[in-house]
Amino acid sequence: MNTNKGAFYFFNYGLVPFLLAFIAAVGLSVYDQLTIVFSTVFVVGGFASGIWAGRKTDRPLHAFLYPLFYTLGLWTLFMIISGGFYGADAWFWFTILHIPLAPVYFFSSLYGVGYLFIFIPVLYELAFFIGFLVKKQKLNVQSGRKTALMLMAVLFFAGIGLYITWERIQTVLPSHGFDYEGGNSSTDLTPYNVTNPNNILPKLAEEASFSIDTRQNMLVMDGAEAAFPVYSAFAQAVYKNAAQNSNFITFTNTIFAYERLVHKEVDIYFGAEPSKAQLKMADEAGVELVMTPIGKEAFVFFVNENNPVLDLSVEQIQSIYSGETTNWSEVGGKNKRILAFQRPENSGSQTWLQKIMTGHTIMTPVKEEVPEGMGGILEQVADYRNYKNSIGFSFRFFAAGMRDSEQLRFLSVNGVTPDPENISDELYPFTATLYAITLKENKKPSLTPFLDWMQGNQGQQLIEDIGYVKLKK
């Protein structure tokens, strides 16, 4: 009897799922949608196996709850250990304890779809159970008490695992991902690229009063995503044959661009002021940063257009991002939980938030799970999602000009709106400066004249035409 029981479980919950995993893997070569292919194969295969088992065995009802008890029990244990993060190393042991489904977990990790760790085995086990019930007209319930206890245990484990999942999705979102510039940009920069003959960069009405004609005098530029149109427009105006010399106009985003500047791979960085960590990086590298102001900008907070909140005080913003205020009703809005998005550490906008939050502890940011380059799952700060209960922040030009802002509404702060006049007069509380940052030791002959040109009439005209606010004379 025990031998037969062992053979039953080995065949139906070991060998069959293992074979189904390989069938699903082959199916991926035909239709490259991991979740759909694996779910379909395991539902159909599990249901068919259940019907076949119903013809061959008369096992008691609780026998089919053992696999669910095992799977959901392990899931609950590893959810507790990992905090619900499927990229944690602990899940390796979950796969070892579910070795027949190893091919499933391989593809789950490869595609960065962690929820398949539990979704596929439970889907198969439920489909198998349903198939068995369809075939068996009369159920064999040897022990109603044992069946009830097993069912309660299964529901208990499922409940704990789902609760941890629910808790996690309050602050961790599924992958949003960046599709542009090798993953470094959250928006398409093609319209601002000098190599694009149809780019939308503003052009001077007359020839530039300063130009760089030779490659040896051209300066390598990099910077923040929001500043890319600025230095692209500068290069288009000043560099001879800018499209053919586009290798001098680089983009790796704020975090990497600062590193490149400090390591002397870049001549000019364009963006907001550096963070404390970036200043420390420069100090440790023995270099001195020179910050040349070239324009003004506003650091803005925005919400979904359907959010009734129009204005926040500085104190309310500090309370939201410290985690003290958690519901919109506390600041004049609807009774909805506030989902406060942040930006990655050392990005220009996160540095500005830290400046505003001086003296306050910033709450843990909303995160997202993203597929890792060579398989696996990583956790990173989530990009803004325009949910009805969201609040986010950025620089005004980027939010209004470079991204789809049709369903966003900028908030006024302390009753002051972030319009050009209030930015120019610095009446808006979070008026920011756009800098061209260089190294003091950089003595390239074209550097100083280029910086002077940026602050002159033509450079300032381009700044204004792009959408920033020019410096006040």
The number of distinct helices, counting runs of at least 4 residues, comes to 16
Indicate the structural class: alpha/beta
CA radius of gyration: 29 Å
Distance linking N and C termini:
93 Å
Percentage of residues in helical conformation = 40-55%
Q: pLDDT average, as an integer?
A: 87
Unreliably modeled segments: 176-183
Approximate strand percentage: 5-15%
Order of secondary-structure elements: HHHHHHHEEHHEHEEHEHEEEHEEHEHH
The rough form would be described as elongated
Number of strands: 12
**Largest β sheet strand count, sense and barrel closure:** 7 strands, mixed
What does this 3D model show about the protein?
The chain has 16 helices and 12 strands. By secondary structure, it is α/β, with parallel strands linked by helices. The strands form 3 sheets. Strands 2, 3, 4, 6, 9, 10 and 12 form a 7-stranded mixed β-sheet that branches. The chain is elongated, with a radius of gyration of 29 Å. The N and C termini lie far apart (93 Å).
SSE diagram, text form:
Blueprint: H1 2-28, H2 34-56, H3 66-82, H4 91-96, H5 102-111, H6 116-135, H7 144-169, E1 172-173, E2 221-223, H8 228-238, H9 253-262, E3 268-271, H10 276-284, E4 289-304, E5 311-312, H11 314-321, E6 339-340, H12 348-356, E7 367-371, E8 377-381, E9 390-395, H13 396-402, E10 408-410, E11 412-413, H14 420-424, E12 431-439, H15 447-455, H16 457-466
Parallel strand pairs: 1-7, 2-3, 5-11, 6-9
Antiparallel strand pairs: 3-12, 4-9, 4-10, 4-12, 7-8
Helix pairs in contact: 1-2, 1-5, 2-6, 3-6, 3-7, 8-16
